[in-house]
Amino acid sequence: MNHVFQETEPLSNPITYWHVQSKHKNLPYHILVSVPKVEPPIAGFPVIYVLDGNAFFYTVKEQVRLQSTRPDRTKIPPSIVVGIGYPNDQDFEHKRRFYDFTFLTKENLPPHPKGMDWPETGGAEYFLSFIENELKTFISQKYPVDQNQQSIFGHSLGGLLALEILYSRPNCFQTYLASSPSIWWNDRNILKRNSSFSAFLPSLNSKIGLFLSVGALERDHMIHDAKVLYDQLTSITHPYFKVGFYNAGEENHLSVVPTILSRALRFIEQKHK
C-alpha cells in the first residue's frame, strides 16, 4: 500500500472566507463564516458574531459545532458563526481594534500599561455602522439567518464594545456576550449609564440578554468593575431583559475565554426562559 497524504474536503462545517472594505475609510476586514451542515430551521439559523475574529473565531466555531450535535442535552443549537477579523496573521490587530472598539471620548486616556502611545481611537460609531448596515445585511442575504436570534461575542476591549452596543443600540442583537470587558476605559464611563440604559428598555423589540464574565486571576479592578456592573444591571426589573454573570475560578485574562464559552453559548437559549 502506497502511504501518500492526499488533500480532501473538510468533513463538516467548512469555513468561507470573505474580504471586504468598509465604506468608512475603505478599511479592510477579513470575515470568516461557518455554517452548519444540517437543514436550517424554518426561521433560519441563529448567528453569533465574534469580535477579534483572528483570535477567537475558531474557538467559538468549534464549541458550537461539537455541542450542537446534541442540542437536546447541551442547549446549544446549530448556529452560523461569523468572525470579524483583519487581513493579517496577528491574533490581535492592536491599532485597528483600538480604533474599531472605542468611541470618541473627551476624557484623558490613562497611561498605556506598556508605556507606549495609545493608537488612534474613536472609530466605534463607524465600525458599528459597518456591522449593522454592511456585514449583517450581507450575511442575511447570503445565508439562512434567524433575524431574532443574533448574538455578539467580545473579549476585553471587544467585551467593552459589546456593552457599548447593548447600552446604545439594544435592539442591534438579542444576546451580548461580554468576556472580561475593559470597563476601566474612558474613566469607567459604562458604569455611569445605568439610568440611561433603563430608559431604553421599554423600546425593546424582543427579549435581550447579557452574559458577563471575568476570570478570578485577572487584575483586581477587572473583577471589581465586572461585579459592580452586574449588581447595577440586576437592579433593573424588566421582562424583556436578562443578565447572567460568571466569575471563572483559576482563570486569567486569556485562559478565561474557552472556560466560559459553554456557559455563554447556553445563555443564548436560556434568556428566553
UniProtKB/TrEMBL annotation:
Q: Which UniProt keywords apply?
A: Hydrolase
Q: Where are the transmembrane segments?
A: none
GO molecular function list: hydrolase activity, acting on ester bonds
Q: Quote any Pfam family the record assigns.
A: Esterase
> Which InterPro entries does the record cross-reference, listed alphabetically?
AB_hydrolase_fold, Esterase-like, Siderophore_Hydrolase_D
- Tell me where on the tree of life, at the top rank, the source sits: Bacteria
Recorded family membership? Belongs to the esterase D family.
Designated name of the protein: Alpha/beta hydrolase
